[in-house]
Amino acid sequence: MATLQGKDSYPVYRRREDGHKQKVRGHELDNRWVVPYNPFLLRYFNCHINVEVCSSIKAAKYLYKYLYKGHNCASVSVNEADGQGNVDEIKMYREARWVTPPEALWRIYGFDLSKNSPPVMQLQLHLPAMHMVTYEEGQDIQEILDREGAEKSMLTEYFEANKKYPETRSILYRDFPEFFTWQKCKKAKFWQKRKREGVKQIGRIISAHPAEGERYFLRVLLNHVAGATSYEDLRTVDGEIMPSFREAAERRGLIEADTTLDDCLTEAETFQMPSALRRLFATILVYCEASDVQGLWNKHREAMSEDYCRTRLSMQVVQNMVLTDIRNMLQSMGKDIKSYPLPEIDEKHDSSHGVDKEIYEESIIEVDPDHETLATSLNAEQRSAYNEILAAVDSGEGGVFFVDGPGGTGKTFLYKALLATVRGLGNIAVATTTSGVAASIMPGGRTAHSRFKIPLTIYDGLSCSFTKQSGTAKLLKEASLIIWDEATMTRRQRWRHRTIV
Questions:
Q1: Residue 408 · residue 360 · CB < 8 Å
Q2: Cα–Cα distance between 230 and 222 in angstroms, integer?
Q3: What is the block-wise mean pLDDT of the chain (501 residues), using blocks of 10 residues?
Q4: Which neighbouring-strand residues pair with 205?
Q5: Measuring CA to CA, which residue among 294, 155, 162 is closest to residue 218?
Q6: Which of 127, 224, 408, 438 is deepest in the core (most CB within 10 A)?
Q7: At what angle do helices 411-424 and 380-395 cross, to 10 degrees?
Q8: Between the CA atoms of 357, 361, 362 and 368, what dihedral angle is there, to the nearest 10 degrees?
Q9: What does the H/E/C string look like for 421-482?
Q10: How high is the pLDDT of residue 109?
Q11: What's residue 349's pLDDT?
Q12: So what's the pLDDT on residue 500?
């Protein structure tokens, strides 16, 4: 047996059975229990050091950040910001910066902090006539557009080079820097053949997310189709010019069609209710990167609107209601329906007027007329807590208050008075409880699990399942008051700072 390099794990060392054994804490150990070590390092540093075999490129990647990350440091201070709320981050950085002698020596001698070999060139990626043009502040836009070479870019000149040099027809765009150099001056931009052999430079096309649509599919084609002489040539498949880059990539078999997503929705139509179909459609938009969103909408629109059609409203109103429902679902996932090619929502049929679903639902909670006078019936202790909490709400400074008392002492009565007062002023008050029974007693109450998206499985280090851009996050930011009843009945992990932040 020899030493083996494990896959994404420590090496499996060859440890010979040499017959030597030693009892340690009542256990008999032999050579197989000894960790890899270096006697010289142990003697020299006089400390615990073990040595591992590093024989993979991943080891260099893993060690790189340790070599250059620098020492650990922290600067903690509480200072008042200026009148506009600005913080001097440059001053904070300089005060926390500590240059050690080795780092000072390294910089004095001008040694490289990092180096890439071979050099990497970023290749521009853009749709027709949508490349970036730089200019100085104050310059006339028309003058910039009329400037010689303004219409040229790395990509457009790649097409021109393929026309000029027939031998490049087999070279992909990403491999072009290995054989050509990019020349750029005030009056000219072009690819020039390399004059020196042995000089290697690799190219990487700027990344594009599938949600970018045509730009992403253009990148897919450039990574697989060599020798294109124009955008139109890139869209040509078997002599037929495809209307879009997506269809060209699909025709070449470079991407999957939306048939799997279509089949998923078609199958769901046979057993799912319309509301569940709308949720599934929104999930597909967010997580599945559908390329033909309009086609999926047109095909499954009727199935998603069956429950609204029963109200005998016009098809335009029904479509608006379905789109509003989908928009609210997308907002809860941190997305905007305007980023998808779907019909526009007619605002006159939308009572929420584009407000996030969570915020809209809280803002329309009606205050019970009987609760409006509860504040006048508070006893002395309730009145003291009521005034202190409302003072924090009115000042906008915020605060954390713990209301303690045995059952039947009027805690829920106080909560109802606070909720009625805050909501009566047109502000948002979020009412949550640990148990579902208590939530049914609180006006507009929700369980903490439901409102804060706390996982049902509790463990150390858990975090709530909503993003900073979601409707829930926006609701918590807008809320003037948040009440959590029966908070002492919940487990400690739900109160950790990372749970709700």
A1: no
A2: 11
A3: 69 80 86 85 88 66 60 63 73 78 89 83 91 81 76 90 89 91 84 81 87 87 92 92 90 82 89 89 87 89 84 76 88 83 76 65 81 87 90 85 84 89 88 81 82 72 69 83 82 53 38
A4: 123
A5: 155
A6: 438
A7: 30
A8: 180
A9: HHHHCCCCEEEEECCHHHHHHCCCEEEHHHHHCCCCCCCCCCCCCCCCCCHHHHHHHHCCEE
A10: 92
A11: 55
A12: 43
Cα torsion angle, 245, 249, 255, 261, sign = positive
Residue 29 main-chain phi, psi, to 5 deg: -115, 150
CB count in 10 Å sphere of residue 452: 20
Instruction: Return the structure tokens found at 105.
Output: 């020596």
Please provide the distance, in angstroms rounded to a whole number, between the alpha carbons at the two ends of the chain.
52
At 178, list the tokens: 């290995």
Predicted confidence at residue 63, as pLDDT, reads: 64
Separation of alpha carbons 178 and 119, rounded Å = 10
Report which of 479, 480, 462, 460 is spatially closest to residue 471, judged by C-alpha positions: 479
The residue written with tokens 């139509």 in the block is 269
DSSP for 224-282?
T--S--SHHHHTEETTEE-SSHHHHHHHTTSS--THHHHHHHHHHHTTS-HHHHHHHHH
Helix (H), strand (E) counts: the chain: 21, 11
What is the C-alpha separation between 426 and 87, in angstroms, rounded?
33
What tokens does 500 get?
């709700």
Q: If 0-12 CB within 10 Å is exposed, 13-18 middle and 19+ buried, where does residue 6 land?
A: exposed
Tokens linked to 260: 């799997």
Integer Cα distance of 343 and 315 in angstroms: 13
List C-alpha distances in Å: 82 to 54, 252, 451: 52, 60, 36
3-state secondary structure 103-115: HHHHHHCCCCCCC
How open is the CA angle 178-179-183, to the nearest 5 degrees?
Answer: 95
Q: Which domains does the chain have, with CATH numbers?
A: 1-67 (no CATH), 120-131+149-249 (no CATH), 259-354 (no CATH), 363-500 (3.40.50)
Report how far residue 15's alpha carbon sits from residue 2's, in angstroms, rounded to the nearest whole number.
9
Report the distance separating Cα 250 and Cα 120, nearest Å.
Answer: 30
Do 444 and 432 contact (CB within 8 A), yes or no? no
Long-range contacts of 109-117, Cβ-Cβ distance < 8 Å, separation of 24 or more: 113/68, 114/68
Q: Which tokens go with 66?
A: 């340790």
